[in-house]
TrEMBL record:
Organism: Atopostipes suicloacalis DSM 15692
The protein's name: Cell division ATP-binding protein FtsE
Gene Ontology CC annotations of this record: plasma membrane
Classification of source organism: Bacteria, Bacillati, Bacillota, Bacilli, Lactobacillales
Gene Ontology molecular function: any one: ATP binding
Protein keywords: ATP-binding, Cell cycle, Cell division, Cell membrane, Membrane, Nucleotide-binding, Transport
Mode of membrane association: Peripheral membrane protein
Length: 228
């Protein structure tokens, strides 16, 4: 599903964030990305949704060759790769419904299709009763659930989550994990960066450790106890 071959990423300021990294992730996997701050985790994930381009090496996601693809096809890639952030990034002037619908309108769906799908994803994250509320009327956990609903509205094959529980308390984080596991069980590949060792050790999945732009460990499900 996702393949990186000998990828390096050097930012404009000369910092090498990713260093000759190769990895393969299959459709349907759930992968944690862990490692110290500044190790390159966010950059590793930004390469997957073409927020940054590799300086060297090749990245492919599904049928997309990140290096070679045309700019005009980026919206098609983004339909295949949903993204969730630590700080939710909901649009504050739009309701829950509108935040999700907006992500779909970009893809020219009919009003009826959009309404049906918004209802479906809100049910999945158990927020169907908050459809007309604004982000600032919701708790952090609820906002993250809206962000997840928005990220999966277009039925992406991959969900990239950059520290999705970073701002949430343990109980709320557990709720987010259950939702991510449900989405994964439906076949969506999940790549999740996290500093939360409790989550990594409780909900066992493949663990990729990144340090100084390199993969220093890559352990199958349950094979690794991660210490923060
Ligand atoms: P992590 O997610 O593990 O904290 P990042 O991928 O955010 O790591 O950062 C890796 C390195 O690249 C850090 O040294 C960071 O300062 C640098 N970096 C990240 N984004 C940029 C950017 N847009 N421009 C320049 N340097 C960046
Ligand atoms: P996160 O905490 O989610 O990993 P970062 O702190 O890496 O996020 O990045 C936040 C924003 O700042 C991003 O848009 C990133 O591109 C930018 N950025 C991060 N580090 C640097 C840096 N050293 N120089 C310039 N921009 C950076």
């Amino acid at each position: 599903m996702i393949e990186m071959k000998n990828v390096s990423k050097v930012y404009g300021n000369g910092i090498t964030a990713i260093h000759d990294l190769s990895v393969q992730i299959e459709q349907g996997e759930f992968v944690y990305v862990v490692g110290p701050s500044g190790a390159g985790k966010s950059t590793f994930m930004r390469l997957m949704y073409r927020e940054v381009l590799p300086t060297k090496g090749t990245v492919s996601v599904g049928d997309f060759d990140i290096n070679e693809m045309k700019e005009k096809n980026v919206p098609f890639l983004r339909r295949q790769v949903g993204v969730v952030f630590q700080d939710f990034k909901l649009l504050p002037t739009l309701t829950v419904f509108e935040n999700i619908a907006y992500a779909m309108e970009v893809l020219e769906k009919s009003t009826r299709q959009i309404e049906a799908r918004v209802e479906e994803v809100l049910k999945l994250v158990k927020l169907e009763h908050k459809t007309d509320m604004y982000p600032n009327e919701l708790s952090g956990g609820e906002q993250q659930r809206v962000a997840i609903a928005r990220a999966i509205a277009n039925m992406p094959r991959v969900l990239v989550a950059d520290e999705p529980t970073g701002n949430l308390d343990p109980d709320t984080s557990a709720g987010i994990m259950k939702i991510l596991e449900t989405i994964n069980a439906q076949g969506t590949t999940i790549i999740m960066a996290t500093h939360n060792s409790e989550i990594v050790n409780k909900y066992k999945h493949r663990v990729i450790v990144i340090d100084d732009g390199r993969i220093t460990r890559d352990e199958e499900k349950g094979g690794y106890t991660y210490e923060n």
